[in-house]
Amino acid sequence: MAGYIKATYRAGPVTVVERYYSPRYGVRAGRGQREKPTPERVAEANERRSEFKLWLTLLENFQPGDLHLVLTYRKENRPADKSLLKKDMQAFLRKCRAVYKKQGRELRYIWVCEYESTAPHFHIILPRIDPGLLQDIWPHGNIRPGYLYAEGNFKPLAAYLIKETRRTFRQKLVSGRRWNPSKNLRKPKVTIEETGRSRWRKDLKVPKGYMMLGEVQNGVHELFGTPYQYYELLQIVTERRKE
User: How large is the angle between the packed helices 155-164 and 39-61, nearest 10 degrees?
Assistant: First the structure.
């Protein structure tokens, strides 16, 4: 049996580990031929992967207390051409950058847009700042401020943003991306190694200084059909990262 692949993702206080076999080795989770994934299964897997990447990016770049703003439009200000929505967001971000610079802060962001089967609106994640400083630079409607919270380590937020934009993303009128990041976001650290070991332990010892989030998942890779393991670790004591 060939060695398995270990993928380790580190983002903020969370470490995620995946173990699986490459399908080229012919390792199967059970008897019989591996069925080719249907387009629907591939699309679902891609959506879950997009949610996973968004979650890690949020963890690496934002903290509890940072902003989650919803930018809405007054009915008379809604663009008839949905492709113009992106220009409104770009104008808002230019003004945002000036506000943050005046406060001695660096602007980082992630935004998504939704308009299918609902009034057009944006969700945008920003570093902590007085939201009152931003109200006047969005002239099209209201800004509803919210704040990131520690519970769930931003996973519910990532799931919500992906679900919220599911229909709009398929039209690709505003953006070809599922979610839109600023260029200065830090990337989660990813290490992928092919081990020389043929099997892994289904139960494992949690490293010192960490606690397990949830349970170890032992199952079958949704696309490869090979044995699969997944678990998440939270660092118990972390120093506050610099802005």
Answer: 130
Q: For residue 72, what is the domain's CATH number?
A: 3.30.70
- In a domain? residue 216: no
Partners of 20 in beta bridges: 5, 228
* Three-class DSSP category at 121: strand
Answer whether 0.90 is exceeded by the pTM: no
Q: Is the dihedral of CA 127, 131, 135, 137 positive or negative?
A: negative
For residues 145 and 130, give the distance between their C-alpha atoms in angstroms, rounded to a whole number. 10
- The pLDDT tens digits of the residues spanning 87-101 come to 999 999 999 999 999
Residue 178: partners with Cβ closer than 8 Å, 6 or more residues away: 50, 54, 112, 162, 165, 169
Q: Which residues have C-beta within 8 Å of that of residue 149, sequence separation ≥ 6?
A: 64
The tokens for 211 are 């606690």
DSSP H or E segment with residue 171: helix 166-171
